[in-house]
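Dear H.,

Thanks for agreeing to be a second pair of eyes. The structure we're designing against is below in token form, covering all 284 positions.
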């Protein structure tokens, strides 16, 4: 056997030897992080689970103690006096405020990103003030203004208040979308003899539409869910959050739990549908 063959055999033997496996050290973080994540999810979803479970409670006059399982609450969600009227008011207020806030907020976002004008930086700062102001202060200030102008609180004062604080959230959401667009697309449209209006509706607006849709859903959720500002400026008009607050002392009616559970399932369905459509677009 030659020296070359011996060397080759040694190299082959070295290659065949299994690698030395090091024992993985015990890391406390590997167990703490999943445990904290599980506790966080439990903390978040226990109230939702409670609401969903007690929507099937055969409660009668009080919904504080479990009395038995029934489907009557889901079959007749308007069984509790005033609950459906409050929900209708919340939906109407939310839709009107969402349309108004989305329209104005989108225009403000486009102006702040695409145009240069005096006090632009000041406006960028002021747009965050309604988001940073405590709702108690905001609600009380709006009520004082309505009373100074001798406007009785009611349905339309709630609409004005909700539109006001929703605009900031719409601007922030749409502004991020506008900033991510390539301005050369509008320049290309102008090179193809498109007017500024045509370039906006045929190029810019379709690209902004996903951000506008997200901003509109956020505005509607904020409006439908608001209690503090609504309580200051509602007068005798009841919304769903006000109805729940007033009913909480004797136990929220099971029908209110039904409506809350239905709204949660609807929102969850919208999120799931959005994720499915997004994955299909990426796959395509």
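And this is the sequence the design step returned. I haven't edited it by hand at all.
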């Amino acid at each position: 056997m030659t020296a070359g063959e011996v060397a080759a055999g040694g190299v082959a033997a070295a290659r065949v030897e299994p690698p030395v496996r090091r024992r993985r050290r015990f890391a406390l973080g590997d167990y703490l992080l999943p445990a904290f994540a599980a506790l966080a999810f439990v903390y978040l979803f226990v109230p939702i689970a409670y609401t969903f479970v007690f929507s099937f409670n055969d409660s009668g006059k009080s919904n504080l103690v479990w009395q038995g399982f029934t489907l009557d609450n889901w079959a007749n969600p308007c069984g509790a006096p005033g609950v459906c009227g409050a929900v209708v008011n919340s939906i109407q207020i939310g839709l009107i405020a969402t349309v108004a806030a989305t329209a104005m907020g989108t225009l403000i976002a486009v102006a702040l990103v695409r145009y240069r004008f005096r006090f632009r930086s000041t406006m960028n700062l002021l747009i965050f003030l309604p988001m940073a102001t405590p709702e108690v202060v905001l609600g009380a200030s709006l009520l004082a203004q309505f009373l100074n102008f001798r406007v009785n609180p009611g349905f339309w004062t709630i609409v004005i208040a909700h539109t006001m604080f929703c605009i900031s959230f719409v601007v922030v959401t749409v502004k991020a979308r506008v900033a991510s667009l390539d301005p050369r697309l509008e320049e290309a449209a102008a090179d193809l003899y498109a007017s500024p209006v045509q370039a906006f509706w045929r190029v810019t607006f379709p690209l902004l539409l996903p951000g506008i849709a997200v901003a509109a859903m956020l505005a509607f959720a904020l409006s439908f869910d608001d209690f503090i500002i609504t309580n200051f400026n509602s007068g005798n008009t009841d919304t769903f959050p006000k109805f729940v607050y007033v009913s909480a002392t004797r136990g929220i009616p099971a029908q209110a739990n039904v409506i809350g559970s239905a709204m949660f399932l609807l929102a969850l369905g919208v999120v799931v549908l959005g994720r499915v459509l997004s994955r299909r677009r990426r796959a395509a």
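Two observations from my side: Residues 253-284 form one domain. Residues 105 and 171 are 5 Å apart (CA to CA).

Warmly,
E.
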